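Re: weekly structure request thread

Next one in the queue (49 aa):
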Amino acid sequence: MILKLTKLLCFFGIHRYKTINIEFGFNPTDRVTTLECKNCGFTKIKADG
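Done, posted below.
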């Protein structure tokens, strides 16, 4: 039952992210973070700066 609930939350866009990769640029604010959902495997790339 819990597994079905987590899949339903992912369907509605509520994910549990874990950090996969962090890349830094020349400026301290240039950072690209790759996030992946623990439940469904959805990958998100987040650019800070």
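The chain has a mean pLDDT of 89. The chain has one domain: 2-48.
Next request, please.
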